[in-house]
Amino acid sequence: xxxxxxxxxxxxxxxxxxxxxxxxxxxxxxxxxxxxxxxxxxxxxxxxxxxxxxxxxxxxxxxxxxxxxxxxxxxxxxxxxxxxxxxxxxxxxxxxxxxxxxxxxxxxxxxxxxxxxxxxxxxxxxxxxxxxxxxxxxxxxxxxxxxxxxxxxxxxxxxxxxxxxxxxxxxxxxxxxxxxxxxxxxxxxxxxxxxxxxxxxxxxxxxxxxxxxxxxxxxxxxxxxxxxxxxxxxxxxxxxxxxxxxxxxxxxxxxxxxxxxxxxxxxxxxxxxxxxxxxxxxxxxxxxxxxxxxxxxxxxxxxxxxxxxxxxxxxxxxxxxxxxxxxxxxxxxxxxxxxxxxxxxxxxxxxxxxxxxxxxxxxxxxxxxxxxxxxxxxxxxxxxxxxxxxxxxxxxxxxxxxxxxxxxxxxxxxxxx
Length: 417
Description:
Elements: H1 2-17, H2 20-26, H3 33-37, H4 42-55, H5 65-74, H6 80-83, H7 88-99, H8 104-126, H9 130-139, H10 142-145, H11 150-167, H12 171-184, H13 204-219, H14 221-232, H15 236-242, H16 252-272, H17 278-303, H18 307-314, H19 321-330, H20 338-359, H21 377-416
């Protein structure tokens, strides 16, 4: 738990020391600001830190890590294992690594590097405040998701690359990335129609129609599960739906969570009217629809009898929130309160993280420990690397803050002369 807090704190320090909030206050922040003015080494250092934390975890950190460890250890370098697989992308990766006689942590490193490249690329391209987006990436559970559903998270990354193509009207590339996602995790079959979101605009009529569809979906759930099972050729979706282990009823926490998501969506929808820049408004609308899909799926999950199954599909869309919130900060309706609103974003994200990880232990990552034997040579090397990266991020952030303060002071002196 303390390592996660340390990671969140150093990202918070990097965010506060960057020029993001300063540029919001001075009205100089736009979608290109990070690329032009904030090309510092912090972004890379944070990526390395996240990769190390993901890759060096023990087998019991994350709900599925031990399962994947056993699968990898028992996997044979036999091409038949790939030929007969319905989700071959992941097994091809295992096949290559096993043939090279690499240990399980090599698999985690490759997956971590891939996911970090995808998320950091998208945040750098579409978020107006990438550091805050990375902070939310850690605190809102998207990072924790990578510790659990390994194959689904790889599929999510392919989907994100596809969305990047869809936004640029590269429809064929979107379909190809969705095919890769489907061949990694069959649940990604629901992603193919999402290409249409580029042509959707959220209004009251659209919200009303989708609300009615959500109500109907709750009652039609058995038939929808049968359709998904038929197209994917996997019967475990029906098992999820029928098994008493996964049957759920709405509880206080899930209802509050749903109401919170609805409130956030309404607030973001209200924020949209304040965006004047056409490019930023187009990006905001694109990601708002993605997040709205997660709200709809959460509604269906909360009031259906198979919360875990439907909520698993929602994981493909919830991440859009980390792109949207920085826009809500930039276009907050009262600019003199932007620092207060930013502070509330930081605080509530931290509270959410603590509740989900420590109190509810919903991500299976509460007790973090390294994969190496405690106090061994490799254990000490890992600790030194983690501590060094944390210190490097803090020192570099303070250096950037000092440079910015000197620049502002020089600018003020020159203007007075």
